[in-house]
Automatic annotation (TrEMBL):
The keyword Aminoacyl-tRNA synthetase applies. Residues 380-456 form the Aminoacyl-tRNA synthetase class I anticodon-binding domain. ATP binds at K253. This is Glutamate--tRNA ligase. It holds the Pfam family Anticodon_2. Residues 3-316 form the Glutamyl/glutaminyl-tRNA synthetase class Ib catalytic domain. Its EC number is 6.1.1.17. Belongs to the class-I aminoacyl-tRNA synthetase family. Glutamate--tRNA ligase type 1 subfamily. It is found in: Cytoplasm. A motif ('KMSKS' region) lies at residues 250-254. HAMAP family: Glu_tRNA_synth_type1. It comes from Chelativorans composti. Monomer.
Amino acid sequence: MTITVRFAPSPTGQIHIGNARTALFNWLFALKNDGRFILRFDDTDRERSRKEYADQIEEDLAWLGIRPDYVCRQSDRFDLYEQAVEKLKAAGVLYPCYETPEELERRRKIRLSRRLPPIYGREALKLTDEQRRAYEAEGRKPHWRFLLPNFDTDPFEPQRTEVHWNDLVRGPQTVDLASMSDPILVREDGTFLYTLPSVVDDIDLGITHIIRGDDHVTNTGAQIALFRALGAEPPAFGHHNLLTTSTGEGLSKRTGALSIRSLREQGIEPMAVASLAVLIGTSSAVEACPTMEALAERFDPASSSKSSAKFDPAELMVLSRALVQAMPFGEASDRLAALGIMGEKAETFWLAVRGNLDRVADATEWWTIVNDGPAAVGLSEEDRAFVRSAADLLPDEPWDEGTWRTWTSAVKAATGRKGRELFHPLRLALTGRDSGPELGLLLPLIGRERVLARLRA
């Protein structure tokens, strides 16, 4: 049996780091088990689903390093869902209901007032054919509920019916079907709610493991019952904890909060996003993993806490910075070339400046400084005279990493300056910055001609 998982976003907005957590849990589980990863767009909501969102989701996943083995869309699979509806009707476990939302709410309040659980009482099962025709003559159209198998012979006398599963994340779980309302599978307008298409697709696509957020735990009992009603053995389930903002608020695709696209546009490294999305809220220390394979070694779904994890964007920058500052030139070269940083000195330049960067794109500032000089230099008249005198002591080329030490030692001996009084004016004259990469590394990159021009400006 090939392990097969799926990530099933609705293309109704941009995915955020919370969605990425679910996608990554599934991707890493497949990676560790030599399995398959399916991307399924749950786009049955025709009004809110958009192709541009689906395209963006695929792009975001690819940026994170997730490349599905198969992509499908529920909007292309309605025939399968209709077949399942007919099968459930024929089995007598999908029944029509005609209550309005107002009537359902009134019944719910009555049950609460009687200290009864506010679940649907299956009143629609008592309707005669004549009563159904009368409702339809009024213009009412039925919605269809799945009859949960939580009774012996009389559906109006539900009894405790436990559904058990060993959750990949949370361990042994139990849901009592008698505590639940029969779920609506088909709306009045004939469109499907989430549960039916999802279960039908999981059966058809051979999904072996469903890993998702723990907000779905209570749905699992009914879904397991639906799998069995459709003649299929349920897959294994795992429910990881959710991410919230640092203030405890939930994340939302509609608001774009912490969207993968926005993090990408900020120059955050994809493995920083992946590392934090996977490791936060687990028993593992949150560290920047340089590759997906390295993250897979750290990944253990069972290590997730049962409580939600607060996500602080500042942690992302810390992880991203660590990845950039340790990044080999071979990994950065294509991105640097796209920024115009190329040629024979590109690798030496990258190794010189990477330790001072927050983002790869920040290298362009230092590339400009090395090649064109600083935009402005704030030197006092005294320091200006000092750096001009230092120019006279500049060694001849060729230069290497030791040239800076040789030169500044000569300047120190000639002027008596030392420490900050010696080094700071020279750094300002050469780079326009108070701090930055080691000048011993930058000096050969700038070259003697440009150094002299800056000292004598």
